[in-house]
Design goal:
Layout (H helix, E strand, L loop, with lengths): L3 E7 L8 E6 L2 E5 L21 H6 L15 E7 L4 H4 L2 H4 L7 E3 L1 H13 L9 E3 L5 E3 L5 E6 L8 E7 L2 E6 L16 H10 L1 E7 L12 H13 L8 E5 L4 H13 L3 E5 L1 H12 L10 E3 L2 H14 L4 E5 L9 H6 L12 E5 L6 H16 L3 E3 L10 H11 L3 E5 L3 H4 L1 H7 L17 E3 L3
Parallel strand pairs: 3-4, 4-5, 5-6, 10-11, 11-18, 12-15, 12-16, 13-14, 13-15, 16-17
Antiparallel strand pairs: 1-2, 1-19, 2-3, 7-8, 8-9, 9-10
Helix pairs in contact: 5-12, 6-7
Amino acid sequence: MVDIEVIAVGGYNEVGRNMTAVRVGKEIVIFDMGLYLDPISGNNNVEMENMHSLDLIQIGAIPDDTVMNSVEGTVKAIVCTHGHLDHIGAVQKLAHRYNCPVIATPYTTELIKQQIESERKFSVTNKTFALKAGGKYTISQHITLEFVRVQHSIIDSVMAVLHTPAGCVVYANDFKLDMTPVIGEAPDLARMRAIGKEGVKVLIVESLNLDDRGYAPSEQVARLRVRDAITRCEDDKNAIIVSTFASQIARIKTITECAREIDRVPILLGRSMERYNGTAEMMKQVAFPQGTSIYGNRKTTDRMLRRVAKEGKEKFLLVVTGHQGEPGSMLSRMAAGDTPFKIEKGDKVMFSANIIPNPVNYAQRAEVDRLLLRQGARIFDGLHVTGHAFYQEHYDLVSMLNPEHIVPSHGPFEMKGGYVTLGREFGYTLNKEIHIMQNGDRLVLPK
C-alpha cells in the first residue's frame, strides 16, 4: 500500500498564506496557495504583481514552498477550495513552478484567472479546471479528487477529498455547516457520512473557532441583524454607509435588498467590491436588485460620490470596502475627507464584519473610527456572523468522517491545540492520531 505524507508549507504558524501538500506514493497534490496580508497591509511600497516570489517569501507574505524541493515525487494538481486571498493569493507567484493544472470551483477559478492576468513578473501557463461541488476529477490512475459542498463566508466553497489506495484525504479549510444559507445549498452531510464509511486516512482541518461552543450562527442571523439595522432608517435623511468583506456576496445581497426596501439606491464602491461582486454577477451566481451599481477605480468611485453629494445622500446606500481600516480603502478615504463625499453629523456607518485579530488591523480600524466620530458619524458594530465552524460543528465533522488521523491547520499553535481537547472526546491522542504541525514540517502517516 502507498504511504501518505502531509507537508505543512504555510498557514500552520499563522492565519493566512495557506498551503498544504499531500504526497501519495510518488504523486503530490497541493492544496491552496494563499497570501498573508499582514506584511503588505498598509505598505504602499508593495506592488505584488511586480514582485518576485522569493522577495514575497522573505517578507512572509506567501508560503515558503522551498520545502517542496526535498519532497520526492511529482506534483499532479493544485487544488483551491474557495476564493479568499489567504487561499488563492499566491497562485500567480508559485503555480508556474509546478507542471500541473489548477483545479477549483467555478467562481474560484474565475478569480484565479483574473489574478494570473494581472501578474507582471511571471508567466503562469498552468491550465485551470473548474470543478463543481459534487463533481469528481481523475488526477491520476491512483488519485481521484472530489468536491463536497460546504458553506463559508464566500460563495462556491467546498471541502476537498482525495480518494487514494490508502484511504481518503479530506481537506476542510475553511468551512461552516450552515443549514440555512442565504445563497447556495446546505452542506452535503449525506456525502460526508458516506465518505466516512469509505474510510478516511487523514482529516486536515481549520481550527479558528474551536473556543466557541455550539454552532456558528447561520448567515440568516446576519441577514436579520442587517435588515433590522437598515430598515430602522427608513425615514432618515442622513447617509447610510455599510462596510463588509467584499467577498461576502450573500451579505452584500442582503444589504442591497434592504436598501431597496427603504427606497434607497444601493451603490458598491471599491476595487475588491467590483472584483468579487462583479464576477459573481457576471457568472449569475448572484442577482442584485435592479439599479444596483458597482464602481471600482478611484476615478469612477469619486464621480459616483459627487453624484451622491449633489442628488442627496438620503437617496442612496453606500456599500464600501475598508472595515479593517486599510489605508487607501473607500471608508478610510471617506473618514479622512479624501473623497467628494463628506461625512456629516448623524450619518450612519455600519460594520457588517469583525476586525481580523491582529495589531495592525486594530490600530488601523481605531484610527478610522476616531476620524468618523470626530465628524459626528454614528457607528454601528456587530452586524456580522462568522464563516468558520464552531466547536460542535467540528465535533459533527469528526463524527461523520471518523478519520484515522487529524492534522489541525490554519492558525498558530495555541489555536490548533483546541483540536487536542476535541480529539479526547473521540479517544484521539496527541502525537499518535492528532498531529500539531508547523510551517516546514513533514509527517508520514503510519500505514
